[in-house]
UniProtKB/TrEMBL annotation:
Gene Ontology molecular-function annotations: protein-disulfide reductase activity
Stored InterPro entries: DCC1-like, DCC_oxidoreductase
Protein name: DUF393 domain-containing protein
Organism: Virgibacillus massiliensis
PANTHER family hit by this protein: DUF393 DOMAIN-CONTAINING PROTEIN (PTHR33639:SF2), THIOL-DISULFIDE OXIDOREDUCTASE DCC (PTHR33639)
Amino acid sequence: MSKIILFDGVCNFCDQSVQFILKRDKQEQFNFASIQGDAGQELLKINHVPTDINSFILIDGHHTYFKSTAALKICKELKGAWKLLYGFIIVPRPIRDFLYGIIANHRYKWFGHKQSCTLPSPETRKRFL
């Protein structure tokens, strides 16, 4: 079973993060779903994700990860030196999530947002739910 990343489809920073992952996920382990889409909404319900979560979400089998833990687990699977970022998992989660929250809470202000989700390219469309 593939790993699924749920992301904010109207957030420019989140969109760029998805593009970043696509370029470095050479084994195509990750599939993607916008939180705003039907598939994303269904996955949120199935995995009992709190409605107020402000985060990338990683669903890996029966495990669901949020915030900095999701980001670090994703980095661990990417090609290149990005794997090394997983070492930050030793930092206590409240500290990691605090720093993650600063970016998450200001992402629209700092990076902007769009009116609708970007359509994936034909090459990557199969990886979007």
